[in-house]
Amino acid sequence: MSSYLARVYVTPKRSVRDPEGSTVGEALRQLGFDSLQAVRAGKYFELSLEAGTSGEADGAVERMCRQLLANPVIEDFRFELQVEASSE
Amino acid sequence: MSSYLARVYVTPKRSVRDPEGSTVGEALRQLGFDSLQAVRAGKYFELSLEAGTSGEADGAVERMCRQLLANPVIEDFRFELQVEASSE
Amino acid sequence: MTAVNAPAPPGPLTSMEEAQVRELLGREPNALELALFGAMWSEHCCYKSSRHLLSRLPKEAPQVLVPAGEENAGVVDVGDGLAVAMKIESHNHPSAVEPYQGAATGVGGIVRDIFTMGARPIALLNSLRFGFPNARRNRYLLSRVVAGIGDYGNCLGIPTIGGELFFDGTYDGNPLVNAMCVGLLRHDQLVRAAASGEGNLLLLLGNATGRDGLNGATFASVSLGEQSLAQRPAVQVGSPFLEKLLIEACLELLAGSLLVGLQDLGAAGLTGSGVEAAHRAHSGVEIDVAAVSRSEEGLTPLEVMLSESQERMLAVVRPGDVAAVRQVLDHWGLRSDVIGRVIARPLLRVLEGRSLCAEVPIDALTEQAPSYVWPEAAPREMRATASLPAEPLELLAHPNVCSRAWVARQYDQTVQAATVATDGADAALVRLPGSRRALALCTDGNFGSSDPYLAGALAVAEATRNVSCTGATPWALTNCLNLGSPEQPAGAWELARTVDGIADAARALNVPVISGNVSLYNEAAAAGPDATGDGGFPGMTRIRPTPVIGMLGLLDDVGQACTIGFKRAGDVIVLLGPLGGPLDLAAEVAVQRACRDAIAQGWLHSAHDCAEGGLLVALAECCLRGGLGARICIETPALDVLAESPSRIVVSLAEEDLPRLSGTPVLRLGTVAGDRLDISTASAPVCSLGLEDMRHAWEGGLERWLTESSAPA
Amino acid sequence: MSAIPRPLTGARVGVVVFPGTNCDRDTVAAVEACGGRAEAIWHGDAASLERWDAIILPGGFAHGDALRAGAIARFSPVMARVIEFAHAGRPVLGICNGFQVLLECGLLPGAMLRNDSLQFRAGWVHCRVEAASLFTPLEAVGSVLRLPIAHGEGNYVPAPDDAPTVILRYCDAAGQISAAANPNGSAQGIAGIARGSVLGLMPHPERACDPLLGSTDGQLLFRSLLRALVEA
Ligand SMILES: Nc1ncnc2c1ncn2[C@@H]1O[C@H](COP(=O)(O)OP(=O)(O)O)[C@@H](O)[C@H]1O
Ligand SMILES: [Mg+2]
């Protein structure tokens, strides 16, 4: 078994409206950041998990994203996996 | 001027409770992901901006994070910058 | 006219309808024109399968200021120069696809219908139906729908004060989400959504236009199984923040008499709203799609005309007022585009810059829309709801019986500081400003009947009874007809029977129908015990006919409002109304009147109608709300404590007032006493339930269903 | 609570309206019902607040609560004036969203997390008055107020090394502090805190000023403030 750290990024799909991103973008521009073009607001998760192989870890994280972390109807996700420690 | 994409990660400070992370972790374990050790839940932003140099872009994003995107009492942030396109 | 030769997209019009379009235009329509007809002639926009039936509803009464079918919402006088605008609307299909946004945007849509009338929204209610919560998908749908409704209304600062929730197998795959909004206005604030005055300008306010919700009207008018996921419209995402700004800005503009007319954008987007507003004024509109701000690039005129992007309003403004209007909008940080003007000829003209893209007579899109009377046939068998458990504590914990506090605590119920505090009442009470008068509000559907006629009639009976149990007089109702496809004989039969049931009951109870909404094609591809072999689409489960009634009652003195809970040990407990039997509208009228009269005279201590779970559950709720037990002895064998027969109200009062009850059957049941609910018949005990055990079963019921993955079926 | 024979007119209270604020009208009405005079101030107005005796930041969803509740509102032009006003020792009351704005702008220490249930929570709570302040007289300390709440982010976390004065804690009807009485997971059951002349609280006292609405306990805060202003 090894320990893995997965970094998961969830973002609203391109075609989907992102009121939070627009409001934040608007606020930043009002603060004087005129060079800002666009903001998309999403979610970020760090998951620590155990798995036998990195393939297994990958599969588990993919399923967690599909089942819970992202809403596939309106959100995209991607993740990165990193080995933290191997126990033997 | 060049176009930059900044990816900003805002995460709860280690010392601060993370109700969202714990609830999501709990829910994932209920779904059968027993190998999950811990979840931290944060925010993720993609900012598109224009800047003369990458140093300028870096400074602007840093200030946006400090002023608005993260609350220093409860959150840490980090970001990555990437050139999207240079207009001459 | 630009010739558009590309073949029309596979539209929602039938080939016969296309031929009709050709005939009305006297020429070949282009693709955009065909799409305009497709949207405006959808069931969702033109009620082509239900229009002929809606005329059966009683719409007239002295208090009606704006009757059903004329404007975005019905309006009734409520005295003191005040009026109430109200309407209920479904957002079933969007909520099936994305429950949070579907429900949220459902609230957003109905709120726009209300402030379009010049009314300030003061209350929200809802009516929800899901498959049983033992399925994870249904739990997910329920929790996301509730969060979506709550987040939207909470952010707007409109209290969500009532609603109902019911589970049934026929809603698997096709949940129902109906949202109701109530607004308050002075008579002189009433506005019409009419595009009148040639040369007046059309201003589009609020959100930018994108592809979201494209074809939503069509989507709502077909069964969920019929469209592939790819054909479904992009999910609409709501922004309650933007809607809040729109409410404030529009009410300010109306107060300053800066608008000639105001119309929300709902089904069929700019097309629906431009056409409706023109139709009401017998005028025409010219819209330049190039002037419309976009949230994404590359939108075609068709997409701009049919986008259902949320939080947009169409204002009709005199040219000289544009600057003043813009000043108000700037204050609220709202964008506006002058996108067109009112024209004298009754036409919808769509331009893109200088080029004409479509030109269609308004009448052709509205009055001349087809109207169908589908062949009706009763289904082979009618579907009863799943039966309730007979064991009392199991019954109290059943998902269709237990407390809805888990839902209600996610809704801000006290914002606007007008929600009257009660220990639980059959209808929510909202105080009218500057007086002791109050509105009583509730939503009700049918819980007991498998016959659609009875479903309609019982829904009206129950809703009026709920209002009467607070002491309020039923004053007006709105309705949402949730049914399956009318293109199947069984569906057509159910639709007609449901309308007849509502119509007869509303007449008997003397309540005008002032608004409503029709949601057909509620069926989903789901195999299971309910899959229809009864004349529905093969392999599709048609929902059970679900008429939902939104009821308004008027209460003269909020200090006299009657609530559910028993108040005083030693009071006698009485059942008002018939012991059992089918719905008898005369008996219903009588029991409600008897209850209201007693409340008005001030000697009734509590009142609660019998609904799901019959007398047993009603008594348990009176005990729980009041924190007092009851000793009940049922001497007549004709009374079954579990039967869900209509027209019955449990009341409590002082012994000496008992003779004053009249005008309806009166049966003494027992007394308020102790901390247990003891029920016995002349021959044997039925149950003895401790208050705390009942509370545990009833209060925690829903949460247990939602959190325990092993919740019983 | 104590009866107030004395008219409290004269005190002028400014109620700040941000885009998305939705309790401004209720708050104005409550202040007036308690004997004060109240008026709305638009958030974009950077004019001096000299003419006001006290400022209230009412509840709602300023800027839709995008990012974090109160995060954007703190940059509104009026806020620089509110901060000056508070620094001059004059009373500022933040209710619900207004409390969140006070935390974000640093007038009060700490921050808000989402409720531990991750759900919006509305309903009635009991709060025990823990300390005297401009808004809570000494004689009210220890008493239990019944007030409505309605928020999604009320889970208070103190700032490290900067403990506030706790004014209100969630409790049961008998005044006992317990996890069961805490609706949002807030540290130490904190419902309201003060620093100097600034008070922030999550419950809505403006919705508890009329017996028909279920409680008049909210009057305590407004009346104490108005009395302090008239006596000053
Ligand atoms: N079942 C019904 N009973 C009474 N009136 C109805 C019913 N269904 C629709 N109406 C009325 O028809 C008109 C158009 O409704 P709808 O298309 O839902 O309006 P909108 O497009 O503004 O949402 C409204 O006045 C509405 O109240
Ligand atoms: Mg409308």
Radius of gyration of chain A, CA atoms, in whole angstroms:
17 Å
Count of β-strands of chain D:
11
Strand arrangement within the widest β-sheet of chain A reads: 2-1-3
Radius of gyration of chain D, CA atoms, in whole angstroms: 16 Å
Average pLDDT figure of chain A: 93
- Assign the CATH superfamily of chain D: Class I glutamine amidotransferase (GATase) domain
Major beta sheet of chain D, specifics? 9 strands, mixed
Total of DSSP H or I helical runs spanning 4+ residues of chain A: 2
Please report which band the strand proportion of chain D falls in: under 5%, 5-15%, 15-25%, 25-35%, 35-45% or over 45%. 25-35%
At CATH level 3, the topology of chain D is: Rossmann fold
Q: Could you name the CATH homologous superfamily of the domain at 2-15 and 42-86 in chain A?
A: Phosphoribosylformylglycinamidine synthase subunit PurS
Q: What are the secondary-structure elements of chain D, in order, as H or E?
A: EHEEHEHEEEEEEEH
Number of strands of chain A: 3
Multimeric status of the protein = heterotetramer
Please give a structural write-up.
The complex is a heterotetramer, with 2 copies of chain A (88 residues), 1 copy of chain C (713 residues) and 1 copy of chain D (232 residues). By secondary structure, chain A is α+β, with helices and mostly antiparallel strands. Chain A contains 2 helices and 3 strands. Chain A has a domain at 2-15 and 42-86: Mth169, Chain: A, CATH 3.30.1280.10. In chain A, strands 2-1-3 form a 3-stranded antiparallel beta sheet. Chain A is elongated, with a radius of gyration of 17 Å. The mean pLDDT of chain A is 93. In chain C, strands 8-10-7-11-9-12-13 form a 7-stranded mixed beta sheet. A 7-stranded mixed beta sheet of chain C has the order 22-24-21-25-23-26-27, with helices on both faces. In chain C, strand 12 (347-352) and strand 13 form a beta hairpin. By secondary structure, chain D is of the alpha/beta class. Chain D has one domain (12-231): Rossmann fold (3-Layer(aba) Sandwich). Chain D is 18% helix and 26% strand. Chain D has helices spanning 24-33, 77-87, 97-104, 219-231; strands spanning 12-17, 37-42, 54-57, 92-95, 111-113, 121-129, 144-151, 155-157, 165-171, 190-195, 198-201. In chain D, the strands form 2 sheets. A 9-stranded mixed beta sheet of chain D has the order 2-1-3-4-11-10-9-6-7, sandwiched between helices. In chain D, strands 5-8 form a two-stranded antiparallel ribbon. In chain D, strand 3 (54-57), helix 2 and strand 4 (92-95) form a beta-alpha-beta unit. Chain D is globular, with a radius of gyration of 16 Å. The model of chain D is unreliable at 1-6 (pLDDT under 50). Chain A binds chain C through residues 12, 15-19, 23, 71, 73-74, and chain C through 97-98, 100-101, 210-212, 234-239, 241-242, 295-296, 309-310. The structure holds adenosine-5'-diphosphate and magnesium ion (MG). Adenosine-5'-diphosphate binds at residues 54, 57, 68-72, 74, 87, 89, 113, 266-267, 479, 481, 513, 515-518 of chain C.
